[in-house]
Each structure stands twice: as structure tokens, then as C-alpha cells.
Design goal:
Blueprint: H1 23-45, H2 55-64, H3 68-85, H4 98-107, H5 110-123, E1 128-134, E2 140-146, E3 157-163, H6 170-173, H7 177-187, H8 190-196
Antiparallel strand pairs: 1-2, 1-3
């Protein structure tokens, strides 16, 4: 998927994932948090050569130069834009197609994968992202990443992600992150995961 420097449209209505993720959460998570990353990034690249760069290029430059404001805002914008597509009102159920085959090949079974991914998301200390990514050999990996970090800086292809920053779930679940992670499996977008496989 192509992510630009603008705030993207959500791929569904803000109330489409209720009650797992409510409209109020989208108002804050998408309408305020994500929008702030986009606005901050716009200010950081204005009147610089990066103004016309891709988000991926900005992420790599910020990471390589240890430029925390640039990296954090670009990566959080990219991560959130990607995350919205990992969810679907028609999602959930068991995976099918290539993603199902790869999960069985690399984790032994869907249940093993689901339990390991859930445990990774629940146990990630503080804030960050639980990623399903494909390494350079094509093998699927579950990758916990702190703060704004993304598989893009590790030459891994993002397949799915779950945002476990507190702002992703606090309105709906307070501090019960495990309940939020449990709900993810009812709305996960396997079609999107299949599109991302290489």
C-alpha cells in the first residue's frame, strides 16, 4: 500500500468496529493522535528536500541519522496508516490463502501463532507494536517493537500489526490490554495480510 504524507481516510466508518474499537476511540486515536503525527511531520519537513520524499525514505533517513523527532513522527504515521488496514468489520475468523499456509509452515499451527502473537502483544512493556513480518528469507516472524519502531528499518516486510500503545485501547478497555488483544482476533484483516506477503 502507498502511504503519503497526508492523513489517510479510514478504510471503514468510525463506528464499524464497535464494540471492539468504539467510535470514541477512533476520534482520539485516529482523529487526534494520528493526525498529530502527520501535522508534526509536515512541520519538520517543510521547506526541506524531504518535503517531496516518501514516508519510507523519511523513516530511513530519520533512523540512520538518529533524528528522533523526524523518525518518530514519520514512523508513527506509517505504522498507524498500516494498522487501520489490519482491521476490518468483515475480518476475524481463521486465515485462508497463502497467509494460512505460511502461518502453519512457520509456526506449526494457527493456534500456536495466535497464542504467541497475543502473548507478545500483552507482554510488550510500555508502549509499542506487535508485528507479524516476513524476513529476507520469506519466513514469518513475530516481532515486538518499542515506541515507533517498525520492521522497515530491519529489512523485514510488515504483514500485520497491532498497536499496543495505551491510547489504542484505554477508552474502551482501561488498563485491560489482554481484552483488547483478544478482540483483535475478531476484526483482523486476513485479506490485507495476504496482499502484503511477498
Amino acid at each position: 500500500m502507498r502511504i503519503t504524507q497526508a492523513l489517510p481516510e479510514l478504510p471503514y466508518d468510525k463506528n464499524a468496529l464497535n464494540p471492539i474499537i468504539t467510535e470514541e476511540t477512533f476520534d482520539y486515536h485516529y482523529g487526534k493522535h494520528h493526525a498529530t503525527y502527520v501535522n508534526n511531520l509536515s512541520g519538520l519537513v517543510k521547506d526541506t528536500p524531504l518535503e517531496s520524499a516518501s514516508i519510507e525514505e523519511i523513516i530511513q533517513k530519520g533512523f540512520a541519522e538518529n533524528n528522533a523527532p523526524l523518525f518518530n513522527n514519520a514512523a508513527q504515521h506509517w505504522n498507524h496508516s498500516f494498522f487501520w488496514h489490519c482491521l476490518s468489520p468483515n475480518g476475524g475468523k481463521a486465515p485462508d490463502g497463502k497467509i494460512a499456509e505460511f502461518i502453519t509452515r512457520d509456526f506449526g499451527s494457527f493456534e500456536t501463532f495466535k497464542n504467541t502473537f497475543s502473548e507478545t502483544a500483552v507482554k510488550l512493556f510500555g508502549c509499542g507494536w506487535a508485528w507479524l513480518a516476513q524476513n529476507e528469507q520469506g519466513i514469518l516472524e513475530i516481532v515486538p517493537m518499542k515506541d515507533a519502531h517498525t520492521p522497515l528499518t530491519e529489512n523485514k516486510k510488515p504483514i500485520l500489526t497491532l498497536d499496543v500503545w495505551e491510547h489504542a485501547y484505554y477508552i474502551d478497555y482501561r488498563n485491560a490490554r489482554p481484552k483488547f488483544v483478544e478482540g483483535f482476533w475478531e476484526i483482523v484483516n486476513w485479506d490485507f495480510a495476504n496482499q502484503n506477503l511477498k
